[in-house]
C-alpha cells in the first residue's frame, strides 16, 4: 500500500449479529478516515453450482480480485447437498494459514495479564482432509494427510510473520513421538525453514506439554506453528486465556498476499438484532486487515481507541459485564479515536 490511493476490500457482513458488528466497523473506519472502499457481499439463498455452496462465485471473485476481505460470522444452512461456507472459502481461495493473535486486553480481567502470543495453523490438510471411511462393520478409518508443500508453506509464513512483527521465537507444536511420519514431516519442514531465519529462535514442543505450559504460563510462548487439528484446539485454548472468542480476531492467508480476516465467534442468534453484540472481535480483525495492507497508522489509531474504550469500562457490552449497546460502544470508540 503506497498511502495514496483508496483500496477496495470485500466485506461479508454475514448472518445473525454479523450485519450489526459490520456497521460498527464501517462507521469507525469512516470516522478514522481509512481509505478503504467496501464491496459488500451476502450469503446467497440458494446453492451456487459453481461453488457448491451458498456463497456465490461472484463473492469468491470479489475476494480474489481485491486480494483482501473482512468476514463476519456465517450460519451454514442446515440440509444436504452443499459445502460448509467456511470450508468453501478456505478451499476456493486457497487460504492455507490461519493466524490468531491473542493479546491480553487491559481492563478486561482474566487469569493472566500478560498474554501476547500468536497461533498459526495449517488450514488445508491434516485430519481435515475429509478422507474417512468404514473398513468393515465396526471399524472406521480416517486419513491424516501431511504434505511437504503445505508444511513448508505454513512454516515459511510463521517465520516471515515472526520476522515482520518483531517476534523472537517460533515453536512448532507436534506429536511426532507418536505420529512419526506425519508430524515428523511437519517438523522436518519447520526445521528447514528455521535455518533460513537465524535471528528467530526455533523450538519444538509436544502438544500435550504445550497445553500444560500454556495454561500455567502463557508468556513462555511467542509464535506457535501447528498442523490443522492441533491449531484448531490450541487457538481456542489461547482465545480462552484472553477472555473468550468474542474478543479474538483472526486472519486467513493465501498466496500472493491474499487475506480474509474474520471474527472467531459465531452468529450469536440469541442476541441478533438486539443491539447487544460486541463488535470487538470483528474490529480487531479489521485492524489486522489494515496491518496486512501496511496501513499501520490507521491500524494503531483504531486499535488504541478500542483498548481505551474497554479499559475505561464505561461503555461495555453485556458479554463484558456492561450495559452498553453495540451502537454506544461504537460511538465511544469513535470518540476515543486519536485521544490518547
Ligand atoms: P456463537 O459464537 O454464535 O455464540 C456462543 C455464545 O457467545 C452466545 O451466547 C452468543 O450470544 C455469544 N457471543 C458470540 N459472539 C458474541 C459477540 N460478538 N458479542 C456478544 N456475545 C457474543 O456460537 P454458536 O451459538 O455455537 O453458533 C451459532 C451459529 O454460528 C451456528 O450457526 C454456527 O454454525 C455459526 N458459527 C459460525 C462461525 C463462522 O462463521 N466463523 C463460527 C462459529 C459458529
From TrEMBL:
Question: What GO biological process terms are annotated to this protein in UniProt?
Answer: isocitrate metabolic process; tricarboxylic acid cycle
Does the entry feature the keyword Cell membrane, yes or no? no
Q: Which UniProt keywords apply?
A: Magnesium, Metal-binding, NAD, Oxidoreductase, Transit peptide
Q: Name one Pfam family in it.
A: Iso_dh
Q: Cofactor(s) for this protein?
A: Mg(2+); Mn(2+)
InterPro entries linked to this entry: IsoCit/isopropylmalate_DH_CS, Isocitrate_DH_NAD, IsoPropMal-DH-like_dom
Q: List GO molecular-function terms, semicolon-separated.
A: isocitrate dehydrogenase (NAD+) activity; magnesium ion binding; NAD binding
Q: A GO CC term?
A: mitochondrion
All copies of the Isopropylmalate dehydrogenase-like domain together span: 8-333
Domain of life where this protein originates: Eukaryota
* Family as reported in the entry's similarity comment: Belongs to the isocitrate and isopropylmalate dehydrogenases family.
Q: Name the NCBIfam families on file.
A: mito_nad_idh
Q: What is this protein called?
A: Isopropylmalate dehydrogenase-like domain-containing protein
Amino acid at each position: 500500500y503506497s498511502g495514496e490511493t483508496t483500496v477496495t476490500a470485500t466485506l461479508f457482513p454475514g448472518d445473525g449479529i454479523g450485519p450489526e458488528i459490520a456497521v460498527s466497523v464501517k462507521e469507525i473506519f469512516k470516522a478514522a478516515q481509512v481509505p478503504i472502499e467496501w464491496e459488500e457481499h451476502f450469503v446467497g439463498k440458494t446453492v451456487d453450482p459453481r461453488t457448491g455452496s451458498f456463497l456465490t462465485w461472484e463473492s469468491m471473485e470479489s475476494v480474489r480480485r481485491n486480494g483482501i476481505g473482512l468476514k463476519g460470522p456465517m450460519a451454514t444452512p442446515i440440509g444436504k447437498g452443499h459445502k460448509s461456507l467456511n470450508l468453501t472459502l478456505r478451499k476456493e481461495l486457497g487460504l492455507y494459514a490461519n493466524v490468531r493473535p491473542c493479546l491480553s486486553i487491559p481492563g478486561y480481567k482474566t487469569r493472566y495479564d500478560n498474554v501476547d502470543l500468536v497461533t498459526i495453523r495449517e488450514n488445508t490438510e491434516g485430519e481435515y482432509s475429509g478422507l474417512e471411511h468404514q473398513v468393515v462393520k465396526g471399524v472406521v478409518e480416517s486419513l491424516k494427510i501431511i504434505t511437504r508443500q503445505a508444511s513448508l508453506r505454513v512454516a515459511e509464513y510463521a517465520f516471515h510473520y515472526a520476522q515482520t512483527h518483531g517476534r523472537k521465537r517460533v515453536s512448532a507444536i507436534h506429536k511426532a513421538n507418536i505420529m512419526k511420519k506425519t508430524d515428523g514431516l511437519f517438523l522436518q519442514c519447520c526445521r528447514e525453514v528455521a535455518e533460513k531465519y537465524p535471528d528467530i529462535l526455533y523450538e519444538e514442543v509436544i502438544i500435550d506439554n504445550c497445553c500444560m505450559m500454556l495454561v500455567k504460563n502463557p508468556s513462555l510462548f511467542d509464535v506457535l506453528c501447528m498442523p490443522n487439528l492441533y491449531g484448531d484446539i490450541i487457538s481456542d485454548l489461547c482465545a480462552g486465556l484472553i477472555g473468550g472468542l468474542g474478543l479474538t480476531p483472526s486472519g486467513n492467508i493465501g498466496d500472493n498476499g491474499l487475506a480474509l480476516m474474520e471474527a472467531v465467534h459465531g452468529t450469536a442468534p440469541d442476541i441478533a438484532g438486539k443491539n447487544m453484540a460486541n463488535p470487538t472481535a470483528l474490529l480487531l480483525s479489521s485492524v489486522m486487515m489494515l496491518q496486512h495492507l501496511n496501513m499501520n497508522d490507521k491500524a494503531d489509531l483504531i486499535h488504541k481507541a478500542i483498548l481505551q474504550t474497554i479499559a475505561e469500562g464505561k461503555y461495555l457490552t453485556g458479554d463484558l459485564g456492561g450495559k452498553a449497546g453495540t451502537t454506544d460502544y461504537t460511538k465511544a470508540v469513535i470518540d476515543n479515536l486519536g485521544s490518547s
